[in-house]
User: Fold these one by one.
Assistant:
Number 1:
Amino acid sequence: MRLFLLLLTISLGSCFSKEDGSPYLALNSPYGEVPQPEHNRATQKGVELGKKLFFDPRLSQTGTVSCATCHHPDKSFSDGLTLSNTGISGNTLLRHSPALFNLAWYSGFFWDGGSKNLESQAFGPLTHEDEMGVNLIELCEKLQKTEYPELFKEVWGDDTITSQRIVRALAQYQRSLLSFGSPYDEALANKTTLSPELLAGKAIYTQYCAPCHTEGLFTDLGYHANGMDSLIEDRSHELMYWGRYRITNDSSDIGKYKTPSLRNLSFTAPYMHDGRFRDLNAVLNHYFRDHSNNPLADSILRNGNYAQVGENEKRLLLLFLKSLDDEGFNQ
Amino acid sequence: MKNKITLSLVLALASILFITSCQKEEDPINNPSVPSEKMVTLDVHFNTVSNEQTRPLIWLGTPYLTEEGDSIIFDFVRYWIGGIEFVSEDDSVWVEAPYYRLIEQTGTSNKNSFTLQIPEGHYKSMRFVVGVKPNQNSSLDSIVGELNPTIGMSWNWNTGYIFMKNEGKFYNSSNSEWETFKYHLGMNENLQTVTLPLDNSTHIHADKSYELNINYHALKIFSEPNVMDLQAFPTLMVGPADQTARASENYGKAFELGSFEAK
């Protein structure tokens, strides 16, 4: 028996000793274990490597642009611009840089959900000529001559740098960006009651916002047309202006975009897929005043009596939304 | 002495366990699901051909006529193939372990040949997919064989591989101009499985090597069985869905057996 155990130990040990597979223990949330793909489960070293890569401008062709150029930690990893023009070309992008937190629950990335997972998504900004514009083959060769091989070895057992390992490390880091530290979360965790004003604001949220921005993650992870455009004709950029329709070819998806979370709104202005609203007042004006009679708007909006919401109710709603800010996450 | 023998035994057995327990990265190229002791070397060639008997290979930059009379000049033809299977006379199937290969004819690269090791036997047909099956097509970091998201044969904005990519020019008779066409075809629903009947008389033996020539009739993507309207739709990329489905059906039916014989 002892012989058997010794053999087992040697044989198993031989398989695991070459890589540090320590799981990344922080991947928990108030809503259970954070989802992650079997083939790329986060490890401590993997998340650390992903973080280093995320902030490293050497990942761009010019050596001047990192992921963090358009995703600032103090802005919930958005960039404060309507449309970014800080990529290697200086050209203005066509969609707003999204905030990055609680990403593990999504099954679609980019505003239209065309990218199916974080690993695949990273290839987009890395190679896009107006973002980081890097030649991935050259990048791997370049990084192979730096301090990175040792770090890759700690994660994967050998020091070969490949593009799929780069995107997997980036995905591990991005899944670790969890934001559940708002006053709302604290009240929930401590089982304390929200103030009467916040409760009144929450009631407004529940009636008018929660149908799409589901409590918890404050997004239904789905796609909706929120009535900003009543006519969509420009077919350029492979139907970039047609929302999720360009992905599904389903005419009911025309003008639909992914529901962003209502968490951290104080840090993520401007708003919407094209950043057209500078502040939350503009957003509320849209929902409670301007979207009416737009045939492309979701039926939730068209049938929801949004126009009856008054100024005091908007004030209470903004107070509740403020309670979803996670100050600790935005540093 | 007894301790030494025991230690040797432990180390020897441990070595065996080490080897067997760590064989998770198997040779992905030639790992038959139906084991056979005798394997046959098979050289496979995918030839991009025109419909002209006297000029079988597609020459880049040279005009060809489709069945519908459209003049076409190819700049390149590229596609993924995978899921290779050989069906025996008794209907048993040899399945290659998941592996994808890029076939291309471009200005600088004619990559159209590879070697398989398959069990000796008597095969009545072979199958393969043109494109990438859904399990590999859903995540660009799952790299199997030659799959590579860095060579322009994938979409980042709509995750998935481009199964078949053709670019070139067509002659627009309405304005007498040569205009660009781009056919970038993919999406799971457009995956094409090709089945080619093999010569029933060919029993392949391990003591010989064989050559399999498969011809891809590049012009058929425009006209057989679905006639494509190049003037109306010179560019197909992800969509329009009805057009990409028609073109994909065309290329799925454009492969035929050239030859299968001993070298």
Number 2:
Amino acid sequence: MTSEPEKRDPLSVLDRPNSYIGKIVPRPNLDRLMQGRGLYVSDVELPRMVHVVFLRSPYAHAKITSIDASTAKRMPGVVAVVTGPELAAVITPWIGVLSHLKGLKSAPQAAIAIDRVCWQGEAVAAVVARTSEASTGQARAGNVFMNAALPRRPPGLAWATNHARSARTAAWQFLCRQP
Amino acid sequence: VTTAVAISLVVNGEHVEANVLPRLNLADFLREHLKLTGTHVGCEHGVCGACTVRVNGDIVRSCLLLAVQTHNATVETIEGISDSGEIADLQSAFRERNALQCGFCTPGMLMAAQDLLKQNSSPDREQIREHLSGNYCRCTGYQAIVDAVESTARARAGRTA
């Protein structure tokens, strides 16, 4: 055994002539993408596959007073209408943490809003149906009643309060189809 | 609205007969009934351009057109104009310049670009950007796409000259 340290090549693998640096790298999958023959998640069809459409909140801050899913549940093709409390029985809320900042964590976030919504576009209910058309149609048939809560008023923004007031106690039918 | 309507049309050169609900849009008809999934559904309200197809020679948003409106029409999708070789040079220009990453917008981009090149054999970069302004790309950006369309226009002009 020699005690002399091994001589190191001063060039790394990236410095060698065949490296990717500065070269156009051909991508073999481009052809099928350009021919319309890619397979994206929305192209996948599985046996007994169902589609989901989320009913989303038009308000940034509101209380959910009632959800009437009876009409939607009766419609043909509908497998289930799921609300926040129902989903909470099988999914624990997500809590965001940072590995480099121990102790910092977000408030628990439920997969579907429970009792109140905290942001515009938050899911309030999910309609699951055999076809995407059926779930879209049925989501339209669902009624959700909400009380828009008054947002805390930033100084000088009187319009925000007025806007929230006019939106109060509104019954809404809202649809957003997940891509 | 719940009764199916019989339609007859030509899709990529093939005659198609189908019974569709009046509310079915053309994009869903192409994707779900004909399994032509190269036509992509992005925004579903005519903004993103991913669903662009050709109907009677004009490019349209297939998410904004009902399938029943294409009765007796001629529809061409990315699969059709790709297989016919019509855009082979445009596709290789996209490949050479890596003008796509995920490729979701690409069928619509190619449709819109080919439409421009048919109308205008030597578009400048501003005209290319204008014509593709209704097609959103959310990963590559537009520089390489404009480059590819520009070089295809030049190559085609050189071939005919």
